[in-house]
């Protein structure tokens, strides 16, 4: 009888051990491929990571880092909040470092290297009894408060690049932010090295936007207004940038208590404007993105004027079709103007394309594309000029054009009607 009792006791202990070892024990690799380091986007990186995991007694946290560059300390909540690493509960300096979660409750971990914790290398988790335990209902979120439009700089000082550690960087940046209709995203990057594409969810998930509808923006910085209630998906369209983590998904909601913007807000009425192309830069060979950057964010309406300033004999202004603009075909022009300043009144809606006929100037970036919208509903007719024109004065031989054109500083070759005819004719090439 005694031997049977001993056998049963040993069996019970063995079964208990087996049950414990098979009760959904899991190893959580902190940050996944991102690892344990100072994360781009700050402490939200590890909050985002932890939000996607459930931690139970018996689970293991695995911190992967380069020995000597990082470390990991288990600390109290007070030390976690203040980034105080002087008296850690446990410190591990060799990677990978494993911690077994052997009690229910909250655990706090930080990096103790110089300012690593303050820069976001910190993780807080909550451990429950076991995977079968019901998850307590989260506290209801407070109702959002109405506010004015906000411009969010994507990635903050980090900017818009291929992030170290993959897509967690921009998920972390967006975490905890509330995006309302009327807010704006600002993407900062180096022209030519990055771009921003607005894509569908499928293209975002697969990083494949071939044969899909998308919007590509290359001028720096990119300002994107969130004017519809929906989910937005952004990726870097350059080779493998999306796969390497240059992607951002956000959800835009209505501003509580505020009006919901229409998909395309109506422009405020205004008087015609004279735009000095390139401002102080003028019209010359500037590099690939200069004039698209200049035009970005400007609204061109019927009645506005473009002024091209250049040194006579070194440049010209050619009005061309889209095909000629795209291919830099200077043998196919609608009109060419050689005397500075060239003043063009925009008196038809649609896309207009300008370049230079000088050898390779177009290929080197001397090209401008704009879209002219319908005339403002405002009644003002006076001409306002946001930029002081260059010192090139209109030719004394160029008389002001008659009729509706005499508000412009000067007309190309003295004929506003000729310009009008050219721009209307150009609209038929679209």
Automatic annotation (TrEMBL):
Comp. bias intervals (Pro residues): 135-147
GO cellular component assignments: plasma membrane
Annotated Phytocyanin domain residues: 26-129, 150-254, 273-374
UniProt cross-references to Pfam families, sorted A to Z: Cu_bind_like (PF02298)
Coiled-coil intervals, chain numbering: none
Position of the signal peptide: 1-24
InterPro entries: Cupredoxin, Phytocyanin-like, Phytocyanin_dom
Transmembrane residue ranges: none
Disordered: annotated segments: 128-148, 380-403
Compositional bias (Low complexity): 380-400
Keyword tags: Disulfide bond, Glycoprotein, Signal
Name recorded for this polypeptide: Phytocyanin domain-containing protein
Protein's organism: Rubus argutus
């Amino acid at each position: 009888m005694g031997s049977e009792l001993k056998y049963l006791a040993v069996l019970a202990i063995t079964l208990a051990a087996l049950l414990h070892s098979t009760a959904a024990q899991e190893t959580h690799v902190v940050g996944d491929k991102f690892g344990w380091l100072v994360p781009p986007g700050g402490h939200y990186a590890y909050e985002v990571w932890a939000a996607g995991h459930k931690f139970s007694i018996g689970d293991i946290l695995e911190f992967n880092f380069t020995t000597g560059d990082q470390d990991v300390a288990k600390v109290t909540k007070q030390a976690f909040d203040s980034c105080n690493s002087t008296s850690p509960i446990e410190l591990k300096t060799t990677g990978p470092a494993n911690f077994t979660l052997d009690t229910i409750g909250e655990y706090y971990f930080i990096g103790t290297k110089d300012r690593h914790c303050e820069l976001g290398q910190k993780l807080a988790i909550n451990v429950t009894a076991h995977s079968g335990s019901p998850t307590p209902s989260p506290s209801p979120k407070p109702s959002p408060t109405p506010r004015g439009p906000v411009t969010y700089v994507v990635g903050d000082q980090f900017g818009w690049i291929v992030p170290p550690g993959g897509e967690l960087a921009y998920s972390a940046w967006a975490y905890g932010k509330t995006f309302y209709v009327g807010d704006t995203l600002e993407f900062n990057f180096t022209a030519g090295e990055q771009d921003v594409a607005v894509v569908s969810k499928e293209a975002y998930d697969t990083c494949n936007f071939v044969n899909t509808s998308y919007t590509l923006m290359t001028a720096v910085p990119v300002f994107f207004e969130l004017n519809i209630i929906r989910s937005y998906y952004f990726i870097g369209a350059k080779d493998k940038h999306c796969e390497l983590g240059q992607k951002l998904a956000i959800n835009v909601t209505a501003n509580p208590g505020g009006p919901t913007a229409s998909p395309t807000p109506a422009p405020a009425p205004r008087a015609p404007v004279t735009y000095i192309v390139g401002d102080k830069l003028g019209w010359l060979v500037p590099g690939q993105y200069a004039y698209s950057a200049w035009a970005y964010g400007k609204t061109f309406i019927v009645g506005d004027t473009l002024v091209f300033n250049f040194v006579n004999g070194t440049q010209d202004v050619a009005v061309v079709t889209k095909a000629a603009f795209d291919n830099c075909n200077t043998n196919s022009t609608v009109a060419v103007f050689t005397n500075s300043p060239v003043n063009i009144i925009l008196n038809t809606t649609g896309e207009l394309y300008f370049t230079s006929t000088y050898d390779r100037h177009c290929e080197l970036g001397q090209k401008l594309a704009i879209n002219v919208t319908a005339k403002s509903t405002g009644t003002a007719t006076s001409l306002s000029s946001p930029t002081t024109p260059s010192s090139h004065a209109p030719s004394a031989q160029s008389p002001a054009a008659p009729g509706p054109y005499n508000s412009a500083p000067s007309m190309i070759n003295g004929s506003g009607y000729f310009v009008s005819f050219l721009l209307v004719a150009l609209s038929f090439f679209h």
